[in-house]
Amino acid sequence: MTFLSSHSHAKKFIRFWGIQANSTSHAERFIAALEGFLCMAVVIFVTRYFVPSDGAAFLVASMGASSVLLFSAPGGPFSQPWPLVGGHLISAAIGITSAMMISDLLLASAVAASVTIFAMHYLRCIHPPGAATALTAVVGGPAIRESGYWFLVAPVGINVLVLLCMAILVSYVFGHWFPGRRYPANSKRQ
């Protein structure tokens, strides 16, 4: 195998997996990570204040995935406020309902994920981490199941509200140095 041939195979392999060149500056990558750190710290602090940590989750893990979207791709369509809020809250409601109505864990999980996808499409709030929120409501254990629809408010609602407020705040703070990182994408800044 010649060098050119192996190089061609490597390019095909990279293209197949969707690996693309990243033109994001090192400073912007650092700022995204810093924003994610600050945001998750505040989400945890605020949610702990409102949600007792007596076995029930006070932080929904899918919020970490949402922070990746919000701070790595703040202008992306899945990162905007309605997909963030609607995607998580609607998905949580679907997950809770699935867990309450379907006793088989596998079937409840499949129904929650598929109905979440369907609902997010029709309500125009596609936010992939929302599907994980729906699954958390189904497989998250007895403490989450026992909380019922309260899970929608605490921790999900609190997590999402703080995440959204922090995304807007850090965009305002860092937007002076990185004007292309404004959030929400259609906000105007002078």
UniProtKB/TrEMBL annotation:
<feature type="transmembrane region" description="Helical">
    <location>
        <begin position="58"/>
        <end position="77"/>
    </location>
</feature>
<dbReference type="Pfam" id="PF04982">
    <property type="entry name" value="TM_HPP"/>
</dbReference>
<feature type="domain" description="HPP transmembrane region">
    <location>
        <begin position="23"/>
        <end position="183"/>
    </location>
</feature>
<feature type="transmembrane region" description="Helical">
    <location>
        <begin position="89"/>
        <end position="113"/>
    </location>
</feature>
<feature type="transmembrane region" description="Helical">
    <location>
        <begin position="150"/>
        <end position="174"/>
    </location>
</feature>
<keyword id="KW-0812">Transmembrane</keyword>
<dbReference type="InterPro" id="IPR007065">
    <property type="entry name" value="HPP"/>
</dbReference>
<keyword id="KW-1133">Transmembrane helix</keyword>
<protein>
    <submittedName>
        <fullName>HPP family protein</fullName>
    </submittedName>
</protein>
<dbReference type="InterPro" id="IPR058581">
    <property type="entry name" value="TM_HPP"/>
</dbReference>
<keyword id="KW-0472">Membrane</keyword>
<feature type="transmembrane region" description="Helical">
    <location>
        <begin position="30"/>
        <end position="51"/>
    </location>
</feature>
<feature type="transmembrane region" description="Helical">
    <location>
        <begin position="125"/>
        <end position="144"/>
    </location>
</feature>
